[in-house]
Amino acid sequence: MGSRRAAALTLAACLLVGCSGGTDPGPADDRASAGDASGAAAGSTPGPADTSTAPDGPPLTADLRQSSRDAAAGQVQVWLGNGTGAPLTPTRLTYRDGRLTREVLAERLREVPAGRELGFPVPLPPAACPVDGDAAGVLEVVWEGGREEVPVTDDNGTVAAYATSACQARRVARVARLAFLDEVPTTGQGTAATARLLLQVEPTGRVPGATLTLETVNGTPVLAPAGGLPFWAPRLPVGGLERTRVIQLPVAPARCDSHAFLEAGGATAFRLDVRLDEPGREPLFAELVVRMPPAGARAALDFALEACGLTG
């Protein structure tokens, strides 16, 4: 019994602070709760422990990658490929991108062996709004006795998606703030337990005539709508001067195997589909990521572990 309890506590800790799993640690989602659209990192997680063979081509190459844990940490990984034929130890790696408000320094600098590539964490600063659709990233690589600017490929459009989402979230935040509360009301015990997540919608009154409609709330790999529904559908319109509302979302564990808990970097990060109508502007249809606060996340995960019978 004690070992199951210890395992459960390990699962919860991994979900709350991130566990290193494989070669790519745990990014934006952008921290685009409507009240936190900047996506600035609160800290970074360790970089990949393993290397992979660098692609053929120019002596130095760079590309962006992002795991779910990177998104949760508000960062990306810039992978530097070393095709110079000799080990390279960067003394500074600077990422520049017109879609971001400032340049940023990569972290965990270390030697990149010849013919290999390594990933370096890059915290994401606030996005520059409106988003420059023609911008692209450049990595300045400085080492003892040399310097080179390397174009950064981003095949998945990670920075573009981050900046677009963050700018949309700022626009939504002018009309209403969306935030999960710390409380997760629970009834029953063990596998019979049920719970509700509480999502608060607080109009700001700053944009006269604007209406924000919360269309749907999607579950996560760990937390899902109760009753087997694919998503919650509040369909709730909120005007600029209406009172604050709290939406109750009945929740259940999405899965109860340990892999579901250990592999989910975004266990308490929910994607919300919203529509924003403002006078004189085209409607905005956006997907926002709203993360639970630490106390609420812990309460939700404690419930899921108990409902799955993983608490011992």
From TrEMBL:
Give me the ranges of the annotated region Disordered: 24-69
The biased composition feature labelled Low complexity covers: 34-50
Looking at the record's lineage, which domain of life comes first? Bacteria
Q: Where is the signal peptide?
A: 1-22
What keywords were assigned to this record? Signal
What name is this protein filed under?
Lipoprotein
Task: State the organism named in the record.
Answer: Nocardioides perillae
